[in-house]
Prior knowledge:
This protein is α+β, with helices and mostly antiparallel strands. It is 64% helix and 13% strand. The protein has 3 helices and 2 strands, in the order ββααα. It has a two-stranded antiparallel sheet with strand order 1-2. The longest helix has 27 residues, at 80-106. It starts with a strand and ends with a helix.
Amino acid sequence: MAQVTIRINGYAYQVGCEDGQEEHLGKMAAEIEQRITHIKAIGGQAGEARLLMLAALLLADELHDVKTNPPASAPVAATPRAYGERRARLRRVAARAEEIASDLLDL
Length: 107
């Protein structure tokens, strides 16, 4: 089993993976880092756990969309409108995550 050090939000994590999967693991970490960067860009600065939770929710939302609406055979280039739609979705997901976190704190 290979050991890989990934960096997310300035923190280093030692993670094990199957031999030969090191590059793939690095790409997955980069995807998470990209989402955290977007969350921070729209004012979502928060604790480490909260940022990771929001990034996970974004990934889960994208996975849900892909499962329910498989992409067409040819990918569509990102447009300013698509970026705006993603930003709006991020805000909705972040707001929902805030609601969930608030509900959990009230328990």
